[in-house]
Amino acid sequence: MNSWYTVKIKYIKELEDGRLKSVSEPYLVDSVSFTDAEARMYEEVGSQVRGEFLITGITKTDYADIFYYDDCDEWYKCKVTYESMDADSGKSKNVSNNYLVTAASVHQAYERINESLSEMLVTIEIPSIALSPIVEVLPYVPSADVELDRRPATEEEMTSGVPASAESAKDSSDSVELEEDEHVSSFEDETEEE
Predict the structure, then answer these.
(1) What's the pLDDT at 44?
(2) Same domain, 1 and 37
(3) pLDDT band at 121, cuts 50/70/90?
(4) Mean pLDDT in the chain?
(5) Model confidence at 52: pLDDT above 50
(6) Residue 49: inside a domain, yes or no?
(7) Is residue 124 part of a domain?
């Protein structure tokens, strides 16, 4: 199961007037672990940023859903609350979820989140909408999820589920075990002679 991670990177950015400025920008990455989020950032942002960059922080971020619209690049964080009834005790409790939506303004973000969640069976309230500092959202793409050397999987690997590199490592570990066994037997032979 994938989760959302906010990854902050720091790099030197060239401004429109030609000046260089050190900036820190957060990206939202859909990945399975902190390590995977870091690796995806090196792959994705490494091709976009000229020069070196540094990952300064990775935090797990809780978003119920993300709604992307092509006409805007600004991300708004929307807090949505609704009342839910506990089936066992019959008591009601307030549930809060965070959503991200692209919009040109707070008003448009409000309209879009209402439209996106209109099929919910409960009445929702939106207590806060704020402009998010997130620069880009990098969703999980299965076709891009290949090994680091970026080679396509062979047909044998597809059927067995084991990469060829793992098979060769297993074969080499078997040969190491044989060598150790030979060494042990030669040691036993030496002790018998004494």
Answers:
(1) 84
(2) yes
(3) confident
(4) 78
(5) yes
(6) yes
(7) yes
Task: Give the model's pLDDT for residue 1.
Answer: 52
- Token representation of residue 25: 């920008």
User: Would the pTM of this model clear 0.85, i.e. be above it?
Assistant: no
More confident residue, 135 or 178: 135
Query: Which residues constitute the domain of residue 53?
Result: 1-61
Question: Which one of 103, 133, 163 terminates a domain?
Answer: 133
Name the domain count of the chain: 3
Region 126-130: mean pLDDT is 94
145 found inside a domain = no
User: What is the rounded distance in angstroms from the CA atom of residue 34 to the CA atom of residue 60?
Assistant: 8
CATH number of residue 115's parent domain: 3.10.20
Cα separation of 2 and 153, whole Å? 22
For residue 75, pLDDT beyond 90: yes
CA-CA distance, 29 to 12, in Å (whole number)? Answer: 21
* The two three-digit tokens of residue 44, written as one number: 């994705």
Same domain, 123 and 68: yes
What is the dihedral sign for C-alpha 107, 108, 113, 115? positive
153 close to 163: Cβ distance less than 8 angstroms:
yes
Based on the fold, state whether residues 124 and 170 are members of the same structural domain.
no
Sheet holding 20-31, edge to edge: 53-61, 3-14, 20-31, 136-138
What value, to the nearest 5°, has the Cα angle with vertex 107 and ends 101 and 112? 40
